[in-house]
Backbone:
């Protein structure tokens, strides 16, 4: 790499050699098989005399992996070497009935500290029924770098379909994606470019920050949860594992998108699905801790329930779709083990707790999975929230008292317990009912 270049069009970029359709069928049957197998395995462990020994052995292995994760050294954010010619960047906003918030983001993205002739903004109106189309058309007359695409009810594929539809019209070497309520700083693109100086980086995810975090318990919990997510992402990539995309505030090389055949239109979480595709095609994903992308946290239990069920289904669905390719070790040993470890901890441990509790109650002895749940489902998140919050305040150059950190960590630890309910129910629903793909709008505070 020369001083005045950025490796944005990588000559040896991986070719789209994977048939992504292989393995995508029979999701309901796969989910049912996994759920039944999980329950039978837990029941069997309770009925055999050496069940505790097996569980303690598995727990020890995972605790060693967790310790390695905690001890991983996190790389410092890269510094940008100013290029002679700035790369062209395209940014997309997928909007459906977002009249309450879309104007602020349009104005922010069209007023960035970046050469105006080197970026464009595409606002995708996905058949909105409120004033979103009118607002976007008015802004398009005001800002020359703003392009608007109106989709109709005949257009399919949800958010992924909208992004694929506009991709062919974009000029950018780097493609950014934002939700309509995103909040960014004027100079954030310069920080993003620094990560793409490494030619193995196919995508960058901005750390997510909850802008209405002081509204109620739910938003305070989401602030802590986002700190935990950033901590885990940094530690996972630091230990050789995978980084993940989170939808809002993600940037992807066009060459990386091409190697993945674009976004998957048969998923309800385009970001989580693309995460696996990128790693399977040889790319890395970096987390940019500062400046973060701001977004609204949901403020009602109903909105939280719908949002988390979608995340749970989409997150688990990608393992059903790509399990054969994942286990072929195409990503490399470290990434494969990391991916499988988080499948077991994040998605399979919560539903396994239900038959474990029922068998323990029936046989009148302690739950077998209690040590694993306590160490991996409680202790690790507790530590991650604490350190993640510290990092977020340090990156924002803010001081915070120990009592505040303790309070926010406690709230976050209570908040994330909802996954113990959401995850088993979501997987059970996937096993019992076919999923109807639908782009569901997240309610903003202005909508309430």
Residues:
């Amino acid at each position: 790499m020369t001083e005045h270049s950025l490796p944005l069009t990588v000559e040896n970029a991986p070719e789209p050699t994977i048939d992504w359709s292989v393995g995508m069928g029979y999701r309901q049957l796969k989910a049912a098989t996994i759920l039944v197998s999980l329950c039978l395995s837990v029941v069997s462990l309770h009925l055999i005399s050496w069940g505790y020994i097996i569980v303690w052995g598995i727990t020890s292995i995972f605790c060693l992996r967790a310790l390695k994760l905690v001890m991983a050294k996190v790389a410092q954010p890269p510094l940008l070497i100013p290029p002679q010619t700035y790369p062209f960047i395209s940014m997309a906003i997928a909007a459906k009935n977002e009249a309450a918030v879309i104007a602020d983001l349009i104005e922010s993205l069209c007023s960035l500290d970046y050469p105006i002739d080197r970026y464009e903004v595409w606002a995708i109106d996905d058949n909105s029924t409120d004033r979103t189309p009118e607002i976007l058309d008015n802004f398009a007359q005001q800002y020359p770098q703003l392009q608007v695409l109106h989709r109709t009810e005949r257009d399919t594929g949800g958010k992924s379909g909208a992004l694929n539809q506009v991709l062919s019209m974009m000029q950018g070497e780097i493609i950014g994606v934002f939700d309509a309520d995103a909040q960014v700083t004027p100079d954030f693109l310069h920080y993003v470019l620094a990560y793409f100086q490494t030619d193995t980086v196919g995508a960058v995810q901005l750390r997510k920050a909850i802008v209405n975090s002081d509204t109620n318990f739910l938003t305070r919990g989401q602030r802590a949860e986002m700190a935990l997510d950033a901590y885990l992402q940094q530690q996972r990539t630091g230990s050789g594992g995978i980084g993940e995309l989170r939808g809002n505030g993600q940037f992807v090389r066009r060459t990386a998108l091409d190697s993945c055949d674009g976004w998957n239109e048969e998923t309800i979480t385009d970001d989580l699905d693309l995460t696996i595709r990128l790693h399977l095609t040889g790319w890395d994903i970096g987390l940019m801790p500062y400046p973060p992308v701001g977004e609204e946290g949901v403020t009602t239990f109903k909105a939280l329930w719908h949002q988390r069920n979608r995340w749970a289904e989409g997150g688990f669905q990608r393992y059903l779709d790509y399990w054969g390719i994942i286990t072929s070790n195409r990503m490399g040993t470290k990434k494969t083990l990391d991916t499988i470890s988080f499948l077991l901890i994040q998605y399979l441990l919560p539903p396994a707790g239900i038959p474990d509790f029922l068998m323990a109650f029936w046989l009148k002895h302690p739950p077998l999975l209690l040590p694993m749940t306590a160490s991996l489902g409680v202790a690790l998140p507790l530590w991650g929230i604490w350190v993640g919050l510290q990092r977020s305040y340090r990156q924002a150059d803010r001081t915070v008292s120990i009592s505040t950190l303790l309070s926010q960590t406690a709230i976050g630890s209570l908040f994330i317990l909802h996954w113990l309910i959401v995850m088993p129910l979501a997987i059970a629903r996937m096993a019992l009912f076919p999923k109807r793909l639908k782009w569901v709008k997240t309610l903003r505070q202005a909508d309430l």
Remarks:
- The first strand starts at residue 89 and ends at 95.
- Strands lie at 89-95, 119-126, 146-151, 174-178, 201-210, 250-253, 284-295.
